[in-house]
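Form P-L/3: holo structure prediction, ligand flavin-adenine dinucleotide.
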Amino acid sequence: MFREMVLGLGNNRAVSSVVKRYGMQMGAARFVAGDSLTSAIQVTRDLNRRGILVTLDHLGEAVREERAATQARDSYLAMLDQIASTQVKANVSLKLTMMGLAVSEELARQNLIVIAQKAQEAKSFVRIDMEDSSVTSVTVALFQEIWRQYPAHLGLVLQSYLYRSQDDLKQLSDPPKNFRIVKGAYQEPVSVAFPSKTDVDDNYVELVKQSLDLGNYTAIATHDEAIIGRVLKVIHHLDVPRDQFEFQMLYGVKLPVLEQLAREGYTARVYVPFGQDWYAYYVRRIAERPANLLFFARALINR
Ligand SMILES: Cc1cc2nc3c(=O)[nH]c(=O)nc-3n(C[C@H](O)[C@H](O)[C@H](O)COP(=O)(O)OP(=O)(O)OC[C@H]3O[C@@H](n4cnc5c(N)ncnc54)[C@H](O)[C@@H]3O)c2cc1C
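OUTPUT (holo model):
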């Protein structure tokens, strides 16, 4: 309910103009590693020093012009170059709507191929984030198609709030691939997504179990400590080797928990977004936790 309300309000013009104006000073900076690649690489170095890997995300989505999509593609090529030249331990995550999916599927396909090719040359890895359900089918299809050319360099995200994700996982896992499992961050109708948290959580654990069982490399991306406990039980029960999975969290959320997992010898990675186009990302982070909205509101009133 709270989540739907915040995600709905996020589309309101008056709300967005206030948040865009004051958001960075009032909370967004906690979730965003600065507005440049240089600042994101600095954050990456600090995290690497703590034994934590990174996936870098240049913020941006819903691009509607070819030129902006081409610029976005080039920014990812520059990120892969910087990762290689600075030798930080990081890969990249991207959104197909930033690569021009709303302009044409062909534009997003061509941009993704160029980035995957670069990742292959740089011995790196590209994760396609999953966006709202209007683009799930095309995202799954493009991933499946381009994965064939770059099997070691391309991965996908599946969301446990979607009814379809178990079917997608089964259909995509022959041969095994690399998936990040998340709960899902967008506003979705009950016709496509579980409305209840218990169902989303149970489906999350089930998806991780099935993904590991099917031989996929599985990124367990959640801050939910109860879920992490349940997943660790599954991992021990199935005797899953440690090089078949990793834990992931978002920059600014529960770093001590991730550091503890790293100390216990598990692979741990932080999703580090950077850039100026932080609004939609920040609204999703507020929607995940009422305290984030209270923090923003209090800071706004006290300015
Ligand atoms: C690495 C990574 C990549 C992601 N990629 C995608 C993607 O491609 N597509 C997509 O739809 N979603 C993505 N997400 C977001 C995800 O879908 C959830 O919205 C988000 O992770 C919150 O769910 P949770 O699993 O942490 O569980 P929740 O039940 O939402 O949270 C569990 C606990 O974690 C803490 N917490 C969670 N979120 C926040 C927050 N914003 N601020 C402060 N504390 C918080 C709170 O203590 C909360 O009680 C990603 C998440 C991660 C960690």
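COMMENT: The chain has one domain: 33-277.
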